[in-house]
Specification:
It contains six helices and six strands, in the order βββαααββαααβ. By secondary structure, the chain is mainly alpha-helical. The protein folds into two domains: about 55 residues, no CATH class; about 140 residues, no CATH class. A three-stranded antiparallel beta sheet has the order 2-1-3, with no helix packed on it. The chain has a three-stranded antiparallel beta sheet with strand order 5-4-6. β1 and β2 form a beta hairpin. The protein is elongated, with a radius of gyration of 23 Å.
Length: about 200
C-alpha cells in the first residue's frame, strides 16, 4: 500500500500523511492495481478542494466558537458600560468634569474588548478562546503557520467594516462561510487565512 497525493499525484510511503509539495492529505492506494483516480478510505469522508491544502472546518463548530467568543466580548464590555452609565448620571446632574472623566475611563476600558475582538485569532496557536474550546484554529495559508496578531486584525477588521454597511452588511461574511467551498469569508481572503480543524493542521 502506498499513499497518493490527490492533487499532484505524487506517491509516498504509507507512513507519510501529507504531500510535501502542496500540503494535501494523502490517500491510501493499492500499489498492485492500476488506478487513475484515488480512492478514499471512507466514501463519506470530506474531500479537499483542488488547489487547497486543508478541509473546510465544521460550520457547527465555527458557530459555537463565535458564540463563545461573543460572550467573552460582552463580558469584557461590562466595565466600560458601567462607567458610561456613571458618566450619563454625572452629566444629568450637571457635573461636567466628573462626566468627562468617566467618559475617558469608559473609552479606555472599551479598548479592551475591542482589542480582544481584533486580535483574538492571533493568540497562541492561532486560536481564540472559542476556537480553542471547539478545537479549531486559523491558519496562515502563505506560511502554513498559525495566524499572527497582524493577520487576525486584518481578517476581523473586514468583518467589522462589513457590519457597518446598512441592512446587508452583517450577512455578507456569514454567507461567505456557508456558501464557499473553503469556508473563507472576505476577511480570510484579504488576510490569506483559513479556519480549519486543529486535528488537520500539519507543520
Amino acid at each position: 500500500m502506498n499513499n497518493l497525493c490527490p492533487i499532484c499525484k505524487t506517491s509516498y510511503p504509507s507512513d507519510v500523511k501529507f504531500c510535501v509539495n502542496d500540503g494535501a492529505r494523502l490517500i491510501a492506494t493499492d500499489s498492485s492495481a492500476e488506478q487513475t483516480e484515488p480512492q478514499l478510505h471512507n466514501p463519506f469522508e470530506r474531500q479537499p478542494q483542488i488547489g487547497q491544502s486543508y478541509y473546510k472546518a465544521s460550520i457547527g463548530n465555527r458557530f459555537v466558537a463565535a458564540l463563545l467568543d461573543g460572550l467573552i466580548f460582552l463580558a469584557l464590555m461590562i466595565p466600560a458600560a458601567v462607567i458610561f452609565v456613571f458618566a450619563f448620571i454625572a452629566a444629568y446632574g450637571n457635573k461636567e468634569e466628573e462626566a468627562a472623566a468617566f467618559c475617558i475611563v469608559g473609552i479606555l476600558l472599551f479598548l479592551i474588548p475591542l482589542a480582544f475582538q481584533m486580535f483574538k485569532d492571533g493568540f497562541g496557536t492561532g486560536q481564540s478562546p472559542g476556537k480553542k474550546a471547539m478545537k479549531l484554529m486559523v491558519i496562515d495559508l502563505e506560511t502554513n503557520m498559525p495566524c499572527t496578531k497582524q493577520k487576525s486584525f486584518l481578517r476581523n477588521i473586514i468583518m467589522l467594516l462589513m457590519g457597518i454597511v446598512p441592512i446587508v452588511g452583517g450577512f455578507i461574511e456569514p454567507i461567505m462561510v456557508l456558501a464557499t467551498n473553503d469556508g473563507r469569508r472576505l476577511g480570510d481572503r484579504a488576510a490569506s487565512t483559513m479556519v480549519i480543524d486543529k486535528s488537520d493542521y500539519f507543520n
